Amino acid sequence: MDLGISNKLALVTGASKGIGRAIALRLAQEGARVAIVARSAEPLEGVRREMAGSGHAAIAMDLMADDAPAQLAARIRSELGDPEIVVHNLGGSHGVFKTFAPVQDWAKVWQFNVGIAHELNRALIPAMVEKRWGRVIHLSTLSTRTHNGYAAYVAAKTAVDGYVKTVNREVSKDNVIVSAVAPGAIYSEGRHFAKLEKENPAALEPYFNEHLPIRRLGRAEEIAPVVAFLASQYASFMAGAIVAIDGGGC
Fold first, then answer.
1. By the 8 A CB rule, do 223 and 19 touch?
2. How is residue 155 annotated by DSSP?
3. pTM over 0.90
4. Hey, which residues are catalytic here?
5. N or C end of the chain: smaller count of CB under 10 Å?
Protein backbone atom coordinates (compact mmCIF):
# COMPACT_ATOMS: atom_id res chain seq x y z
CA MET A 1 0.00 0.00 0.00
CA ASP A 2 1.33 3.41 -0.97
CA LEU A 3 0.77 5.66 2.05
CA GLY A 4 1.24 8.79 -0.04
CA ILE A 5 4.00 10.25 2.12
CA SER A 6 6.95 9.85 -0.23
CA ASN A 7 9.21 12.93 -0.01
CA LYS A 8 7.09 14.50 2.72
CA LEU A 9 9.12 15.91 5.60
CA ALA A 10 8.51 14.24 8.97
CA LEU A 11 9.77 15.25 12.40
CA VAL A 12 10.09 12.58 15.10
CA THR A 13 11.07 13.54 18.65
CA GLY A 14 12.68 11.14 21.11
CA ALA A 15 13.93 9.13 18.15
CA SER A 16 17.26 7.69 19.34
CA LYS A 17 15.81 4.41 20.64
CA GLY A 18 12.70 2.37 21.30
CA ILE A 19 9.40 3.41 19.78
CA GLY A 20 10.79 6.67 18.37
CA ARG A 21 13.55 4.86 16.54
CA ALA A 22 11.12 2.32 15.09
CA ILE A 23 8.78 5.09 13.91
CA ALA A 24 11.61 7.00 12.24
CA LEU A 25 12.83 3.90 10.43
CA ARG A 26 9.30 3.06 9.26
CA LEU A 27 8.57 6.54 7.95
CA ALA A 28 11.86 6.50 6.06
CA GLN A 29 10.96 3.09 4.64
CA GLU A 30 7.70 4.61 3.40
CA GLY A 31 9.68 7.25 1.51
CA ALA A 32 9.45 10.24 3.87
CA ARG A 33 12.38 12.51 4.63
CA VAL A 34 12.79 12.30 8.37
CA ALA A 35 14.29 14.73 10.87
CA ILE A 36 15.00 12.94 14.12
CA VAL A 37 15.62 14.63 17.46
CA ALA A 38 16.95 13.43 20.81
CA ARG A 39 19.48 14.52 23.42
CA SER A 40 22.26 12.07 22.56
CA ALA A 41 24.05 12.71 19.27
CA GLU A 42 25.82 9.38 18.81
CA PRO A 43 22.84 7.00 19.00
CA LEU A 44 20.76 9.49 17.03
CA GLU A 45 23.31 9.51 14.23
CA GLY A 46 23.25 5.71 14.30
CA VAL A 47 19.51 5.76 13.66
CA ARG A 48 19.99 8.23 10.79
CA ARG A 49 22.47 5.87 9.16
CA GLU A 50 19.97 3.00 9.43
CA MET A 51 17.19 4.86 7.65
CA ALA A 52 16.32 3.96 4.09
CA GLY A 53 16.49 6.65 1.45
CA SER A 54 18.15 10.04 1.72
CA GLY A 55 17.56 13.59 2.86
CA HIS A 56 17.28 12.69 6.55
CA ALA A 57 18.64 14.81 9.41
CA ALA A 58 19.68 14.10 12.99
CA ILE A 59 19.48 16.96 15.47
CA ALA A 60 20.85 16.50 18.99
CA MET A 61 18.92 18.78 21.31
CA ASP A 62 17.46 18.74 24.82
CA LEU A 63 13.90 19.88 24.22
CA MET A 64 13.42 20.56 27.94
CA ALA A 65 15.89 23.47 27.70
CA ASP A 66 14.51 27.00 27.67
CA ASP A 67 13.10 27.96 24.26
CA ALA A 68 14.37 24.69 22.73
CA PRO A 69 11.12 23.79 20.89
CA ALA A 70 11.05 27.20 19.17
CA GLN A 71 14.73 26.88 18.27
CA LEU A 72 14.16 23.41 16.84
CA ALA A 73 11.19 24.54 14.76
CA ALA A 74 13.14 27.50 13.38
CA ARG A 75 16.12 25.33 12.52
CA ILE A 76 14.08 22.69 10.71
CA ARG A 77 12.12 25.25 8.73
CA SER A 78 15.32 27.06 7.78
CA GLU A 79 17.38 24.00 6.83
CA LEU A 80 14.79 21.46 5.65
CA GLY A 81 11.46 23.19 5.09
CA ASP A 82 8.05 22.94 6.74
CA PRO A 83 7.33 19.50 8.22
CA GLU A 84 4.12 17.94 6.95
CA ILE A 85 4.23 15.13 9.54
CA VAL A 86 5.11 15.52 13.22
CA VAL A 87 5.36 12.61 15.65
CA HIS A 88 5.53 13.62 19.31
CA ASN A 89 7.21 10.56 20.78
CA LEU A 90 9.00 12.41 23.59
CA GLY A 91 7.52 11.70 27.02
CA GLY A 92 7.78 9.80 30.25
CA SER A 93 7.75 10.23 34.01
CA HIS A 94 10.84 12.51 33.94
CA GLY A 95 11.99 10.94 37.21
CA VAL A 96 8.93 12.10 39.15
CA PHE A 97 7.60 9.01 40.93
CA LYS A 98 6.01 10.36 44.11
CA THR A 99 2.32 11.19 43.96
CA PHE A 100 2.70 14.22 46.22
CA ALA A 101 5.84 15.57 44.60
CA PRO A 102 6.05 19.40 44.52
CA VAL A 103 3.95 21.13 41.91
CA GLN A 104 7.15 22.27 40.19
CA ASP A 105 8.00 18.60 39.52
CA TRP A 106 4.51 17.96 38.18
CA ALA A 107 4.96 20.97 35.89
CA LYS A 108 8.15 19.43 34.50
CA VAL A 109 6.31 16.19 33.71
CA TRP A 110 3.55 18.19 31.99
CA GLN A 111 6.15 20.09 29.96
CA PHE A 112 7.90 16.85 28.97
CA ASN A 113 4.71 15.19 27.76
CA VAL A 114 2.46 18.06 26.66
CA GLY A 115 4.20 21.43 26.70
CA ILE A 116 7.01 20.64 24.27
CA ALA A 117 4.56 19.12 21.81
CA HIS A 118 2.28 22.15 22.07
CA GLU A 119 5.15 24.57 21.47
CA LEU A 120 6.19 22.64 18.37
CA ASN A 121 2.61 22.51 17.16
CA ARG A 122 2.23 26.27 17.62
CA ALA A 123 5.24 26.79 15.38
CA LEU A 124 4.58 24.11 12.77
CA ILE A 125 0.84 23.60 12.36
CA PRO A 126 0.08 27.01 10.78
CA ALA A 127 2.06 26.04 7.67
CA MET A 128 0.12 22.76 7.49
CA VAL A 129 -3.15 24.68 7.70
CA GLU A 130 -2.02 27.00 4.93
CA LYS A 131 -1.13 24.05 2.69
CA ARG A 132 -4.26 22.15 3.78
CA TRP A 133 -2.31 18.99 4.56
CA GLY A 134 -0.74 17.83 7.80
CA ARG A 135 -0.51 14.89 10.18
CA VAL A 136 0.37 15.27 13.87
CA ILE A 137 0.62 12.10 15.96
CA HIS A 138 1.05 12.09 19.72
CA LEU A 139 2.10 9.19 21.96
CA SER A 140 -0.45 8.47 24.65
CA THR A 141 -0.63 5.34 26.83
CA LEU A 142 -2.92 2.56 28.03
CA SER A 143 -2.57 4.11 31.50
CA THR A 144 -5.02 6.90 30.61
CA ARG A 145 -7.71 4.18 30.75
CA THR A 146 -6.38 1.92 33.50
CA HIS A 147 -4.99 4.77 35.63
CA ASN A 148 -2.07 2.57 36.63
CA GLY A 149 1.29 4.29 36.89
CA TYR A 150 2.89 7.36 38.41
CA ALA A 151 0.30 10.05 39.08
CA ALA A 152 2.10 12.96 37.39
CA TYR A 153 2.75 10.88 34.27
CA VAL A 154 -0.79 9.51 34.00
CA ALA A 155 -2.22 12.99 34.52
CA ALA A 156 0.03 14.42 31.80
CA LYS A 157 -0.85 11.70 29.30
CA THR A 158 -4.54 12.17 30.08
CA ALA A 159 -3.99 15.81 29.18
CA VAL A 160 -2.48 14.63 25.87
CA ASP A 161 -5.70 12.77 25.08
CA GLY A 162 -7.79 15.86 25.79
CA TYR A 163 -5.39 17.99 23.78
CA VAL A 164 -5.68 15.70 20.73
CA LYS A 165 -9.47 15.77 20.87
CA THR A 166 -9.80 19.54 21.24
CA VAL A 167 -7.06 20.74 18.87
CA ASN A 168 -8.78 18.80 16.10
CA ARG A 169 -11.81 21.06 16.45
CA GLU A 170 -9.60 23.89 15.25
CA VAL A 171 -7.58 22.30 12.45
CA SER A 172 -9.22 19.17 11.05
CA LYS A 173 -11.36 21.23 8.65
CA ASP A 174 -8.08 22.16 6.96
CA ASN A 175 -7.02 18.51 6.52
CA VAL A 176 -4.59 18.73 9.44
CA ILE A 177 -5.30 15.52 11.30
CA VAL A 178 -4.17 15.30 14.93
CA SER A 179 -4.28 11.82 16.42
CA ALA A 180 -2.54 9.59 18.95
CA VAL A 181 -1.54 6.02 19.59
CA ALA A 182 -1.87 4.52 23.06
CA PRO A 183 0.61 1.67 23.55
CA GLY A 184 0.32 -0.82 26.36
CA ALA A 185 3.13 -2.89 27.87
CA ILE A 186 5.96 -2.55 25.35
CA TYR A 187 9.39 -4.16 25.55
CA SER A 188 11.82 -1.28 25.83
CA GLU A 189 15.48 -1.90 26.60
CA GLY A 190 16.39 -0.98 30.16
CA ARG A 191 12.79 -0.50 31.30
CA HIS A 192 10.91 -2.50 33.93
CA PHE A 193 9.16 -5.06 31.70
CA ALA A 194 12.26 -5.64 29.58
CA LYS A 195 14.31 -6.34 32.70
CA LEU A 196 11.71 -8.81 33.95
CA GLU A 197 11.54 -10.59 30.59
CA LYS A 198 15.32 -11.01 30.60
CA GLU A 199 16.02 -11.68 34.26
CA ASN A 200 12.86 -13.18 35.73
CA PRO A 201 10.25 -14.02 33.08
CA ALA A 202 8.16 -15.98 35.58
CA ALA A 203 7.45 -12.70 37.35
CA LEU A 204 5.53 -11.55 34.27
CA GLU A 205 2.98 -14.35 34.62
CA PRO A 206 0.80 -12.58 37.23
CA TYR A 207 0.71 -9.47 35.05
CA PHE A 208 -0.25 -11.50 32.00
CA ASN A 209 -2.93 -13.36 33.96
CA GLU A 210 -4.53 -10.19 35.31
CA HIS A 211 -3.92 -7.58 32.65
CA LEU A 212 -2.61 -8.85 29.31
CA PRO A 213 -4.58 -11.64 27.62
CA ILE A 214 -2.21 -11.81 24.63
CA ARG A 215 0.41 -13.02 27.17
CA ARG A 216 3.43 -11.24 25.76
CA LEU A 217 4.96 -7.79 25.64
CA GLY A 218 4.52 -5.66 22.57
CA ARG A 219 7.41 -4.48 20.43
CA ALA A 220 8.24 -1.04 19.09
CA GLU A 221 8.04 -2.46 15.56
CA GLU A 222 4.33 -3.15 16.21
CA ILE A 223 3.68 0.50 17.05
CA ALA A 224 5.51 2.04 14.08
CA PRO A 225 3.23 0.80 11.24
CA VAL A 226 0.16 2.21 12.98
CA VAL A 227 1.87 5.59 13.36
CA ALA A 228 2.87 5.46 9.69
CA PHE A 229 -0.76 4.86 8.73
CA LEU A 230 -1.89 7.81 10.87
CA ALA A 231 0.71 9.89 9.02
CA SER A 232 -0.68 8.84 5.66
CA GLN A 233 -3.21 10.08 3.13
CA TYR A 234 -5.59 7.38 4.38
CA ALA A 235 -5.94 8.93 7.87
CA SER A 236 -7.97 11.85 6.52
CA PHE A 237 -11.10 10.92 8.54
CA MET A 238 -9.28 9.94 11.74
CA ALA A 239 -9.30 13.39 13.33
CA GLY A 240 -8.93 13.05 17.08
CA ALA A 241 -8.48 9.27 16.95
CA ILE A 242 -6.63 7.68 19.87
CA VAL A 243 -5.67 4.22 18.69
CA ALA A 244 -5.03 1.56 21.32
CA ILE A 245 -2.10 -0.78 20.61
CA ASP A 246 -2.07 -2.73 23.83
CA GLY A 247 -2.64 -6.44 23.24
CA GLY A 248 -6.06 -6.20 24.88
CA GLY A 249 -4.47 -4.81 28.04
CA CYS A 250 -6.61 -3.75 30.94
1. yes
2. H
3. yes
4. 153
5. N
